[in-house]
Design the sequence.
């Protein structure tokens, strides 16, 4: 969306339906599979790079203050948990990637909030 500037839900749904349709049609799937690995690697790097930069852009647009230690620690830990492959297994459920990073971020934010309310944090909110 960020590259094309098209944010229409209908366009995104249409692209999803085309992707599903293309994946079950053998000849189209074979044509996509014939794309060289280096090209697919480049496209993948571009895709994930754009996703990461969009995340950073949200921080800039919302004027997140990274001069505060708690904000820097929260952002750093959440980011590293998300990209490092860290995982946790709770019974039959395994949390990893973005799901685990989101939960770590929320829990760490709650811990910081509780410590701030208890007067233990040495930064002003």
Sequence:
């Amino acid at each position: 969306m960020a590259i094309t500037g098209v944010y229409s839900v209908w366009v995104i749904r249409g692209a999803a339906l085309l992707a599903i349709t293309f994946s079950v049609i053998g000849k189209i799937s074979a044509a996509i599979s014939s794309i060289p690995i280096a090209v697919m690697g480049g496209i993948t790097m571009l895709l994930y790079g754009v996703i990461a930069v969009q995340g950073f852009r949200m921080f800039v647009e919302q004027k997140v203050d990274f001069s505060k230690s708690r904000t820097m620690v929260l952002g750093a830990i959440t980011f590293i948990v998300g990209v490092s492959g860290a995982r946790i297994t709770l019974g039959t459920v395994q949390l990893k990637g973005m799901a685990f990073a989101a939960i770590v971020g929320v829990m760490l934010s709650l811990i910081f909030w509780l410590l701030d309310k208890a007067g233990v944090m040495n930064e002003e909110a």
Summary: Strands lie at 87-90, 93-96. The CA atoms of residues 36 and 107 lie 42 Å apart. The two ends are 34 Å apart (CA to CA).
